[in-house]
Amino acid sequence: MTDLPKGYQLRHLVEVDSTNEEARRMAAAHETVPTWIVADRQTAGRGRRGRAWQSPIGNLMTTLYLPIGFDAVKAGQLAFVAGLALERTVSTFIGARAAVSLKWPNDVLVDGKKASGILLESAMRDSKIDWLAIGLGLNLAHHPEDTPYPATSLAAYMDTPPDNLAALEILSGVFDEILRQWRNGGFGPVLQAWRAVAHGLGGPIVARLENETFEGIFKDIDDKGALLLQTAKGDVQTIDAGDVFFPDRD
Asked: Rounded to two decimals, what is the model's pTM?
């Protein structure tokens, strides 16, 4: 039996189109209990920007359904809570066998290779977010080969990687702990912890936006979670959304 923090329920599905879609259906049914949805297999998993998310049996595909009203800014901060929770989950399992870091905005990297993804989806009502789905994917046993940058899984660093429910038990506990810190102390402590494990901070970076590309130095993450990139001319660009690459590492 999977042990979740107090106040959450578990919805374990053998197969689903996507755990985020299941959260959407729960919202449509006006379900009011925060729920960790986990599927052994997804038939239509997706990542950021509408990309397909490979979902083989053996990996963790889960969504935290939060039927709680948020303002949009605070909801966006939960992507950083989720990233930090995934980073600590991975570190719990592989320890010092590899370097674990966070690639802005929310990917866990193991020795510089992508091991996870996060997708937030929501619906608005009365100018506030009515419910939030935080989709998290973690490569436990498998990883894709045809990605724009290298990927990996926990299996590359462990004799026997955890199954999805064992990974969820660790993730849900860590997530709840960081969520409580965020609720009590605001975004500052979360961002400070995030910066401490940020991949490539202080080094060269390329940020690819929808219509333009910036190159420079990864200077910092501002108090709203945006990436600050200093160009060769000394200008500082504020990047709110985009794909980032590290030319000396990727």
From this structure: 0.91
CATH superfamily of 9-196: Bira Bifunctional Protein; Domain 2 (3.30.930.10)
- The pLDDT assigned to 53 comes to 53
Using one digit for the tens of pLDDT, what is the confidence trace for 126-163?
777 889 999 999 999 999 887 777 999 999 999 999 99
- CATH number for region 204-245: 2.30.30.100
- Counting Cβ atoms within 10 Å, is residue 28 exposed (0-12), middle (13-18) or buried (19+)? exposed
Residue-wise pLDDT tens digits, 79-113: 999 999 999 999 999 998 999 999 998 899 999 99
Locate all alpha helices (DSSP H) within 18-163, ordered by sequence.
19-28, 72-94
| Of residues 147, 159, 134, the one with CA closest to residue 67 | 134
| H runs (alpha helix) in 63-200 | 72-94, 164-185, 187-196
At residue 207, the 3 state secondary structure works out as strand
